[in-house]
Amino acid sequence: MAAVESGAAGSSDLVLLDVFGSPYAQRVRIALAEKGLGYERVEQDLAAKGDLLRRSNPVHGKVPVLLHGGRPICESLAILEYLDEAFPSTPPLLPPPASDPYARARARFWAEYSDRLHVCGKRLWLRHDGEEVEPEARAEMVAVLRALDAELAGKEFFGGEEEGKFGYVDAAAAPFAAWFLTYERSGGISVAEECPGLAAWGARCARRESVAANVYTPEKVYELVQEYRQWVLGR
Amino acid sequence: MAAVESGAAGSSDLVLLDVFGSPYAQRVRIALAEKGLGYERVEQDLAAKGDLLRRSNPVHGKVPVLLHGGRPICESLAILEYLDEAFPSTPPLLPPPASDPYARARARFWAEYSDRLHVCGKRLWLRHDGEEVEPEARAEMVAVLRALDAELAGKEFFGGEEEGKFGYVDAAAAPFAAWFLTYERSGGISVAEECPGLAAWGARCARRESVAANVYTPEKVYELVQEYRQWVLGR
Question: pTM higher than 0.90, yes or no?
Fold first, then answer.
């Protein structure tokens, strides 16, 4: 149930309620790894939610929830910001508040926007066998990919001008890069053809230790999506 | 088209693209008023979007957009955070980052959550004449109101322990207090009966100068909602 990882000083009271395959939980694990913060991971059963999850996130009952000293922080992006603020001596995801408010606002916009990948993705893969992909769903996904690609603008990471800076938007969006193969097989959208820069960013993320350790491979994601699909559509 | 308001030093290059009745734009105007920041307001026609809006928010084409020195910041809550960071000598909405990361994370959660009021509200009022309110829609709205009421926990404002502190969640949620009458008339939900504390908070917000100047009265909201409803359902 619980995997205990070696911890940086001061982080031994971090507990993460999560589900390994949840891209929102993956954001948090990636951020914790980037910061070198240790934590106890407590895998949740969303089909039979436990007391700790219900108490920690009474409003949504969702993962991820980060407990720090017993106090729950909910919502993946709020947790990322919290980690920057509560552990200021760790590598920051966002630029410091005083240095570049505009870059911070921009990163917040794009991190939030990356959720669209998951929302649009579902419209591509949650279909009965033989059912056509809606043209609007495909068009919307292409628009989302292109918008992200334009924001990346050929940089190595979204993190900013600084060379090789993996930041807030990267941590937020990296889990979805492992779904690109699913978009291709289920929705007929080749990210490599539509947005080569974004596809290269995804491959770069996949090679990064913080991501590789915390995200399923694209093949595994596709396989799990098929299982989930059968389960949902078969009910 | 443009209303110019007197400005605090350093804010003369703020331009707000908005629509007076948009609760998301109202959040930003309330925050600007709380901070004493002047700005030029440029009302937008969402039925015929102008070039400035399209260029400033190419992804969503929505209001509000705040232009600061010509650079666009999009998404109401990102704008609120930006104002705290770009104008650090003005009264903060959130506690400073170093002082209370937990309170900041919690405020982010609840500010985001307050959007549920608008989403649930629409399910109450966007109905044909004679069409029943769905019981699930009513139940969900009551749950949302109760969750906010529990978070308020009898305080004067959401802003925090500090007496009378109007903060980030208040600025985010105050525009929806003017919709409580619409929830009552359209959805049969009396906020005063369900959640007297939250209703009193709403009345307190309505009396606050920053809110009163930037939000329609509850009667006016109800009237505009009826017009909008006829227009949408009549199409």
Answer: yes
Total CB pairs under 8 A between chain A and B = 69
SS3 annotation, A118-151: HHHHHHHHCCCCCCCCCHHHHHHHHHHHHHHHHH
Taking contacts as CB-CB distances below 8 angstroms, the residues of chain A near B81 are 104-105, 108
DSSP for A78-133, written as a single string: HHHHHHHHH-TTSPPSSPPTTT-HHHHHHHHHHHHHTHHHHHHHHHHHS--TTPPP
Cα separations in angstroms, A174 against A168, A202, A206, A218: 10, 7, 8, 12
ipTM: 0.92
Q: How many Å lie between the alpha carbon of B106 and the closest alpha carbon of chain A?
A: 7
pLDDT single digits (tens) A36-68:
999 999 999 998 999 999 999 999 999 999 999
Task: Indicate the helix (H) or strand (E) that contains B17.
Answer: strand B14-18
Take residue B121 and report the two structure tokens written for it. 């509200």
CA geometry: angle B172, B175, B177, nearest 5 deg: 110
